[in-house]
Amino acid sequence: MKRLKLGALAAIAIGAGVAAHAAETGITVAMQLEPPHLDPTSAAAGAIDSVLYANVFEGLTRFAADGSVVPGLAKSWDISEDGLTYTFTLQEGVTFHDGSSFDAEDVKFSLDRARSEDSTNAQKALFEAIDSVEAVDPATVRITLGQPNGALLFNLAWGDAVIVAPESIEGIKSSPVGTGAFKFANWVQGDRIELERNAEYWGEAPALETATFRFISDPTAAFASVMAEDVDAFVGFPAPENLPQFEADPRFQVIVGSTEGETILAMNNKQPPFDNPLVREAVAHAIDRQAIIDGAMFGLGTPIGTHFAPHNPDYVDLIDLSGFDPDRSRELLEEAGLAEGFTTTLKLPPPSYARRGGEIIAAQLREVGIQTEISNLEWAQWLEEVFRGKNFGLTIVSHTEPMDIGIYARPDYYFQYGKPEFVAIMDKLNAETDPEARSALLKDAQRMIAEDHVNGYLFQLAFPTVANARIEGLWQNQPTQATDLTGVRWTE
């Protein structure tokens, strides 16, 4: 993006002879993954939310930068004493980007669509507790639950629960229409997505007039683009080995935060030999987490022993259940009747943690007799083969959705666990509203999947951002996968 500077005549007029920055009105943000399409309500790809969450699309509630759940398109709500009825009062004066009015019927349409029998929403389980959605009047929505759900307001803050207009559904994947502070302007596939400020936004107007998201998958190219100032910020910078160089350069700021991203070596629990718990445990003990963090992430990342974020107050440290122990791994393989080892697939999506980590993990598994056939997949291929097709033995991916341990209760989820005892814990959790009781259930859930070695739990993904030193308002942490630009501005 070109910098706007006062011309020579203006500089002489102010008698300084020093170039001064005019107010910046736009930003170019780079990220590694390009969205496969632009409908956050019908795909699991986090890259969609990275561009659109809070910028273009909004939900009844939303996540703030600190992870708290705050009002969105609903300005307030009342909860009945039995916890079954939520009555939302909607914001006033809201319009969609196409000029149509937003009202309760749009909320009803969006939530009914997300939870319908033929829904393609990747997080359809978020809406399972809902019995009905009623548009009481244009400014009031009543949601009735089949049983109390202490996580409803949290669930409605996800990108999968944003509100869409019925009229926009046909073109939503290529030309999204939301209610947010920015409007979709253009998508040059393979290169960039352009947004522009929504002059009719119902809330506080953003400082930025335009925003361009560029997609740069190669870590070397990422470094070059930031160093040359071709981009103003790179969120989720994919080459952590370069961070010290940026930290030493006064042109830049380096922001390192945490994410909700549990990075796992996922195992197909229905595919032999991973349907045998002994084999899954053998894989878990063959992995040296710190070597992966050091080798693939240059030290950025927090080891985990279960599918839960270490910064969450309910986290249980269960790393010892799957500590690095190659001898124990070989013993478990022998006990499982695989003393000679076996060969399986290792399918890797594009992010650096997967591609770099995959090579290290393949070498570690080879030491105990497990051979891997590595396939590097593009994101769309990974979604098709692994996530939807379940055609894999092993894969590496970071689950960036907030507190998503409930995915283990879904037997048809891509790693295919769904143990009935675990489902029972989740059912109790969903019905429980007491904080202490919910905490105990969450800890039980963590222990069960760690003891069953459902997946190989690697590390909590760090989130480094490199940005121009004059930019403020970028999120440090990722309570959800998003690049919220509504509070971003340039300083002088």
What does this structure look like?
The chain is an alpha+beta fold and 492 residues long. 26% of the residues lie in helices and 23% in strands. The chain has 13 helices and 19 strands. Strands 1, 8, 9, 10, 11, 12, 13, 14, 15, 16 and 17 form an eleven-stranded mixed β-sheet that branches. Strands 4-5-7-6 form a four-stranded antiparallel β-sheet, covered by helices on one side. α10 (352-366) links the parallel β14 (342-348) and β15. The longest helix is centred in the C-terminal third of the chain and has 17 residues, at 435-451. The chain is globular, with a radius of gyration of 24 Å. The model is unreliable at 1-22 (pLDDT under 50).
Q: Which value, in Å, is the CA radius of gyration?
A: 24 Å
Q: Average pLDDT value?
A: 92
Number of strands: 19
Shape: globular
Low-confidence stretches: 1-22
The CA-CA distance between the termini, in Å, is 17 Å
List keywords for this structure.
alpha+beta, eleven-stranded mixed beta sheet, four-stranded antiparallel beta sheet, disordered N terminus
Summarize the structure.
The chain is of the alpha+beta class.
Fold topology:
Layout: H1 8-13, E1 26-31, H2 46-52, E2 61-63, E3 69-71, E4 74-79, E5 85-90, H3 104-115, E6 130-137, E7 140-145, H4 152-155, E8 182-188, E9 192-197, E10 210-215, H5 219-227, E11 233-235, H6 243-247, E12 252-267, H7 277-286, H8 289-297, E13 302-303, H9 326-335, E14 342-348, H10 352-366, E15 370-376, H11 379-388, E16 394-399, H12 420-431, H13 435-451, E17 456-468, E18 471-472, E19 489-490
Parallel strand pairs: 1-10, 1-11, 14-15, 14-16
Antiparallel strand pairs: 2-3, 4-5, 5-7, 6-7, 8-9, 9-10, 11-17, 12-16, 12-17, 13-17, 18-19
Helix pairs in contact: 7-9, 8-10, 12-13
